[in-house]
Each structure stands twice: as C-alpha cells, then as structure tokens.
Recover the amino acids of this structure.
C-alpha cells in the first residue's frame, strides 16, 4: 500500500534540491508542504542548505511551528513564515521563502513586480510588499516572532507572492509542485523585467494585460504543465547529482608515452675523435 507521507517527504527533499539547482535557494531559504493527512500540520526540513536535503531530514510541525515529536535537530528560525500562512490560508498547501538575487532588486527598490512573459503570470494578479519597519521598527530582518509571522501573512492576503522589503520573497501554492513552479518562474520573470527596464523599453504594451495574465495562469498551473516542468527540473537535478557523484578516474601509474620517452637516456652521437679511431 502506498505511503503518501513517505512519498511526500521524498518529493519535498527533491523540491529543495531542485530549487537550489535552479538558483532560487542557496545556503538560506526553505520550502514546506502541508501534511497530506492532517491539515493542522506541515512538513519542512531540518536546518540546513536546501541542496543537501534528504527525506530523513524532514520534520513534522504543528501550525504553531512546534515539532510534533521531540527532536534534537536544529530548526529554521523563520518557521513562523510557514505556520502563519497555513493558519491564515486553508487553500495553501506549500510555502517557499527565498532571497534570490533576481528578485532582491524589487525588494530593495519597491518597484512593482509584474508579469512580462506568459510563465511569469504565475506570480498572480498582484505582488504586494511587506515592510517589517511599519509595525516593528528596526529588526534583524528575520521573521522569527509569531506576531511578525501573522503580519507577514496578512500582507500576503489572498495573493500568491509577497515581497519583503530589503529581505526576499515568500510564495504560496496549492500544491508543492505549483509552489516550486511559481518560485522558479517568478525569478525568471523578475530577471527579464529588470533587463527590460534597464533597456528602457518596459511599458504597458510590453507587460501582460490582466486578461492575458489570467489566461496564462490558467494554462500554466495545470497538472499537465506542472508535471512537464517537474519532469524537466528533476531530470536536470539527477543528471547533475550523478555527474558530481561519478568518481574521478585513478591516475595511471604508467607515465604517458611522451613523458616516458623524454625521461629515457638517449644514445649520444659519437665524437670526431671516436670517428677517427674507427677509420
């Protein structure tokens, strides 16, 4: 009988590594998924870099972001980002928080992130901002307290992405694969929007209209399209992991032919005196 929980832990581990391989997560950032049987719990890996996550690193937490089972594993400090969104949004089944370089210029400048390509429409009808200064003044820009997590979740509202001023981005999805898709393609969209703005060509005619964006989302966020993208990303990941795991060929004890030839003593040409002696 299939074990849905074990399968989801495996997929969550892969999602972490996919997001790392695609440049969304690095040493920092995290992705979670709601428990498949209990909506009052969620799954997230223990503290560590996403590239290294394995299924046995996954922990089960309550929506108050407390471990269900006692653990000695170190936990992420920003768990309230996940728990508070799950509390506020029953329709959300996956949450990703990252600091991708492509998105950070928008977090710093306050420029609105808008869809500029069809896959970028996955960012949703709007991307609001959340500024921790508004309610909490000077902080370390790390969302650690429940009141900060609830404020952050209110800023997300009914949308699917929120930008944290001077910090990063948080995305939500109705499934783990949708959240991965949205996380990757909003970064691609941000990079393209910034390039177009640098060229001075970004205007209302070069962004998607509200109608176009809605139709593009309807096409992109289907199981068929999400499955195709997931297959591509996991294939790229497994190919890269296999290449990095391939042992390097051992250095041969035999020296290359040219080197060996250079090291062998060569016969010296006879001197003139020796030649006269042989006459």
């Amino acid at each position: 009988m299939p074990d849905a929980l074990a399968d989801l832990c495996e997929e969550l581990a892969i999602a972490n590594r996919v997001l790392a391989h695609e440049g969304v997560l690095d040493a920092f950032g995290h992705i979670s998924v709601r428990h498949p049987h209990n909506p009052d719990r969620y799954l997230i890996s223990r503290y560590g870099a996403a590239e290294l996550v394995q299924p046995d690193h996954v922990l089960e937490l309550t929506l108050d972001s407390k471990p269900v089972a006692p653990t000695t594993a170190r936990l992420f400090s920003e768990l309230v980002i996940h728990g508070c969104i799950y509390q506020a949004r029953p329709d959300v089944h996956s949450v990703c928080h990252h600091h991708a370089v492509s998105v950070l210029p928008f977090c710093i400048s306050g420029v609105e992130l808008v869809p500029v390509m069809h896959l970028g429409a996955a960012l949703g009808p709007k991307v609001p901002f959340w500024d921790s200064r508004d309610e909490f003044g000077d902080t370390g820009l790390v969302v650690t307290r429940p009141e900060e997590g609830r404020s952050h979740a209110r800023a997300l509202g009914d949308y699917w992405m929120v930008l944290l001023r001077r910090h990063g981005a948080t995305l939500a999805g109705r499934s783990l694969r949708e959240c991965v898709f949205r996380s990757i393609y909003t970064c691609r969209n941000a990079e393209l929007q910034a390039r177009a703005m640098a060229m001075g060509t970004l205007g209302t005619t070069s962004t998607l209209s509200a109608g176009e964006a809605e139709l593009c989302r309807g096409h992109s966020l289907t199981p068929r399209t999400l499955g195709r993208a997931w297959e591509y990303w996991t294939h790229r990941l497994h190919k890269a992991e296999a290449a990095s795991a391939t042992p390097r060929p051992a250095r041969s004890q035999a020296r290359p032919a040219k080197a060996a030839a250079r090291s062998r003593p060569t016969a010296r040409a006879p001197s003139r005196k020796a030649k006269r002696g042989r006459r």
